């Protein structure tokens, strides 16, 4: 499996496995099946359950086409919306354990996802042959949209051994949540770990809260406290850092 070296803000190169063409194609097929299922359900509800087909009677061709476009609109924006909401993943990518990241080491922005989406019109033309050829011949298995947006699709199936971590033990099948942690340095993580450990011993909730807020500010993360507590968040950040750096103990 080929790898890509992403340079962090601390000028440290971290190697990631590049998602294979096969993994990306399977993810695309899964997403395609989801979109097809959506269209079938919407049309069934429109014509059979709610029996709204009569609304199309008497409309000209362009008006009928406009109605169909409105009904199927979520299909067209499916990639850019879900990649933005799921931090570089769609359901297909999540199932295949792959993710879109910026080559410069930071989380891709909505603008990056938008550029990838716009180029999808070219990449999927000629039955997807253009995008397939681009992924095969490019260095990092990038389609034209990836090249234009400065992104790549990495695999989250890295083979990490527990003995490779220096700050926290992680399982071999561990799946990271925040690729932004690669913007941190070893010293940053040691400070986080030390302060967090001391705060846990005396149950200093104020320090834990401040530490969590500081990490979120640095990494530009907005975490719903109902989905992940401050302690859970810090634990995940520490494990994610170990996952991506894979330092020897």
From TrEMBL:
Membrane topology: Multi-pass membrane protein
Keywords: Membrane, Transmembrane, Transmembrane helix
Main location per the UniProt record: membrane
Name used for this protein in its record: RDD family protein
Pfam family, one: RDD
Transmembrane segments: 25-50, 62-81
Thylakoid found in the keyword field: no
RDD domain sequence ranges: 19-150
Classification lineage: Bacteria, Pseudomonadati, Bacteroidota, Flavobacteriia, Flavobacteriales
Keyword NADP: no
Subcellular location: Membrane
């Amino acid at each position: 499996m080929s790898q890509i070296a992403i340079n962090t803000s601390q000028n440290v190169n971290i190697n990631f496995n590049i998602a294979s063409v096969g993994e990306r194609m399977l993810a695309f097929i899964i997403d395609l099946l989801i979109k097809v299922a959506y269209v079938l359900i919407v049309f069934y509800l429109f014509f059979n359950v709610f029996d709204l087909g009569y609304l199309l009677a008497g409309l000209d061709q362009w008006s009928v086409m406009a109605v169909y476009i409105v009904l199927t609109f979520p299909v067209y924006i499916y990639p850019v919306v879900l990649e933005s909401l799921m931090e570089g993943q769609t359901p297909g990518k999540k199932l295949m354990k792959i993710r879109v990241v910026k080559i410069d080491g930071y989380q891709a922005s909505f603008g990056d996802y938008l550029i990838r989406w716009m180029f999808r019109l070219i990449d999927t033309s000629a039955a997807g042959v253009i995008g397939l050829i681009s992924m095969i011949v490019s260095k990092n298995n990038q389609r034209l949209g990836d090249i234009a947006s400065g992104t790549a699709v990495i695999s989250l199936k890295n083979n990490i051994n527990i003995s490779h971590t220096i700050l926290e033990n992680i399982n071999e099948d561990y799946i990271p949540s925040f690729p932004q942690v690669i913007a941190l340095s070893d010293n940053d993580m040691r400070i986080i770990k030390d302060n967090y450990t001391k705060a846990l011993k005396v149950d200093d909730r104020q320090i834990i809260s401040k530490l969590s807020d500081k990490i979120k500010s640095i990494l530009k993360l907005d975490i719903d406290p109902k989905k992940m507590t401050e302690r859970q968040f810090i634990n995940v950040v520490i494990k994610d850092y170990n996952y991506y750096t894979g330092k020897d103990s």
